[in-house]
# Entry
Amino acid sequence: MAHTDRTHHTQRRVLRREIAGTIGLLTDEHDFRAMRRYRSFTFHDHAAYLRQVEALLRTRAAQGTHTTLALFDPEEYAAFCTAAGLDADAPVSRARFTAELAAHGPTVPYEGQSLADLLPALVDEAVRQATWEYTSSLLARLGSCSTCGEDLGRAAFSRATRLLRRVLETAPPGSRHLVCSVSGHPEDTLVSALLVDQEIDGAPNIDEAEALEFTSVLALGLATHSPGGLVMRVSPPSGPDRIHGWRLRGYGLEPLTAAEVFDAYCTDIESGDLISPESNVDYCAPPDLGEDRLPPGHHH
# Structure
C-alpha cells in the first residue's frame, strides 16, 4: 500500500511539472497508447491515468488554482516537436505543446465536474472549432462576386446571421435546439447544433462559439447552394414541444410543411422505414421569417 501511495504521489508530481494552468488530456485509449512509446511518459494504464488527472484537478481546485483542459493529440504533438526541433521524449516539450494548445486550441475550464462530464464537452469543443475552421477556410476560398465584387464568404455569413436572428426572433417562447446540416459530397455532410436557452426577461442565452460555428455552416450552405436543412425544436415552459423545419433553397430558407416535418422526424435515415412519432410533440410549419425573401435583382 505504501509503495502504491508513493507511486501515485510521484505520478502526480510528474503531471504537475507538465502543467502550466492547462492539462493536455489524452481522452481515449488509442491516443494514450501512442504516448506510451515515450520513455518519459510514465503511465501504463489509461483508466489509472484519468484517475490521477481527476485527483490533481480536485487538488488544484482546493488550492484555488484555475485549470483548463485541452485535447492532446499525439500526432499533432509529434509534428509540433519536429517543426520546433524539440525532443518529443521530454516533459518540457509536452509542457510547451500544452501551452500552445491553451493559446490556440479548444479548451474547457475545470469547475468541479467529473471527468466523465468533461471529456465529451472537450471533444465537442474540439469538433466545434475544427468545423468552424473548415467552413471558414472554404468560405474564404470562394473569392469575390464577378458581378458586384462583393466578398462571397463574408456576404453569405452576413446573410446567415440575419436568417438565424429571424429564426430566433419569430420562434415561440421556450428553449430552442437548432440543428443545421449541409451536404456536399455523399461522405461529406457538415452538421452543427445550437442550444438557445431563454432568460427570465425573454432574451436568448447563446454560447458565442456555438453560434459562430452554426452560422458558418449555414453560410457555407447558402454560398454554395448545397442541399441542406435547418430544424428547430422549441420546448416551451408548458405544453408539448414544437418542431419546425426549413430546407436550404437558393440563398435562403424555405419552410417545410407540418407534414414534411413529420416525415423527416418519423423516417429512419438509413433504412427509410417509418418510426413512431414522439409523444407530447407537435410537428408544425415554422413561423414566417418575414425577412427571408431577397429583394428583386442581383443576389449571390
